[in-house]
What we know:
Elements: E1 4-8, H1 12-23, E2 27-32, E3 45-46, E4 49-50, E5 55-56, H2 60-78, E6 83-91, H3 95-105, H4 119-122, E7 133-142, H5 144-157, E8 161-163, E9 171-172, E10 177-178, E11 181-182, E12 185-188, E13 205-216, E14 225-227, E15 231-236, E16 239-243, E17 247-248, H6 257-268, E18 276-288, E19 294-297, E20 304-308, H7 314-331, H8 342-348
Parallel strand pairs: 1-2, 1-12, 2-8, 6-14, 12-20
Antiparallel strand pairs: 3-7, 4-5, 6-7, 9-10, 10-11, 13-16, 13-17, 13-18, 14-15, 15-16, 19-20
Amino acid sequence: MAKKALIFGAGLAGTCLAHRLLSSGIEVKIVDQGSNNSSAVAAGMVNPMVFRRMNKSWRLDEFLPEAQAFYQEIERVLQTHFYHPIVIRRFFSSNEERESWQSRSEEEAYAPYLAKLTASDLAHTAALNTFGSGRVQNAFWVDAEKWVGQHISYFKQRGLLVQEEFSSNLWEPKLRKYAGETYDFVVFCMGYRQKEEQTFSYLPLQQTKGQTLLIESDQISDLESLNRKCFVLPYGEGRFRVGATYEFNNSTLHVTEAGKVLLLENLASLGSYEPVVVAQTAGVRPTVLDRRPLMGQHPIYRGVYIFNGLGTKGYMMAPTLARELVAHMLENKPLHSETNISRFTDRTL
Length: 349
């Protein structure tokens, strides 16, 4: 008889994990409340670089190729399209940043990601360009709203998803039992709402609110994603997503005038545009202070796991981390030390 897994949450973490478990022959059931407030702020952008230090993202060379292959495979499975390769044009904030880019682009390890600077890059006129600009290669974005919506439909049609609120009254962690049914594995992928649930409440998950704008403009190029103080992601037909704010320890879901003003100010640092604001959205990200995900088995309840805290790099990390968590669950393979919740458990409980 096949083993059974219950997943709480059908956001990015829960859906990636469900695919990995199903591929391993595990029966899957997903319980989800039906509204994903992380996807409202997630641009789904996968940027190979951390511009602040001009370094590659953590574990980039592992995460990126697997993510690219995974999303294109899931497109085939769901018979839809949400994976979009894109070039990110970074406008330098100083001479030092430009020089750091130039130096990095000469290194073999950075060659796949940082295009060598050209005269055209340094004189790029599509935005204010005091110090020049550079192009990030091998970037892409996943349409987060479409990803979540398509997966809700996909799993629901197959009888694998139940749309309902998690109820602590139905949860018996010692027995791995929910609503009277026992599972071999239970995994919490509840995003920022994990703080409201007691099983893993000891973990330092933060609720970080973010706001974005959907704008229309005939002055901004839709050939690249622009980056400086904010991101400008082209959706086509003159529409762009501008984001995002970071409001720590804030789980409210209403948009604010202050958020709108800040985003428009950041956009103005790129050029003298006159955008039309079409919509403003707010969502809450699950983040961790050390910028590493929360993965692993509960220190007391055997067979009960968490997969959360993916943060702003989630769409790059999720496919690999989901595979690693399944290997940990089924084969007892060790998790990466920087993702394992034992880094908190050992000094918390």
